[in-house]
Amino acid sequence: MPNLRALDAPKPRLSAKLRRAIELRVRKGMTISAACESAGLSQSGWFKAFQRPAVRDHLKEVQAEFVSEAEGLRATAQVAAIEAALDLMKNAKSETVRARMAEFLAAGAKADTGVNVAVQVNNTGGGYEYVRPGQKLVEVKKRKSDPKKEQ
Prior knowledge:
Blueprint: H1 16-27, H2 32-39, H3 43-49, H4 53-91, H5 95-108, H6 147-150
C-alpha cells in the first residue's frame, strides 16, 4: 500500500495592494477610502476581498501585531520615564522636585487601579423642558402648612 499523507492547504494569496491598504488602515488610522486610494485599490475590491475569511484573518493578525508593538513602545517609554525620575530624584537642586520624583517612583510600585471616574449625584435638575403638543404639564407645589395640624 502506498504511503499517503495529506497535503497542507496552500496559503491564500492576498494582493500587494490589498496588503498595503490593510497596513495603512491599521497603522496610520486611515479611512477605508483613503487607504484604498493610497494603495491603488478600489473600494469595491476592498469590500469584495473582505468577504473571504483569509483576508479577515490577515487584518486580525496585522491588528494584533500593531497592538503588540504599541505595548512594547509603552514599556520602553515607562522605563525611560523611571530612569529620568530617578536621575531627577538624585540630582535635582530643588527639594520639591526631589520629593515629587520620590512620590512618582513610590506610586509606580502600587498596582494600577484604572481610570478614576467622578459621578455627581446631587443634580438639582432645572433648565428648559420641552412639552410636546397634547402633553400635560404637571407642576408640584409645596403645601401650605395647616395651622390646625401644627397645634
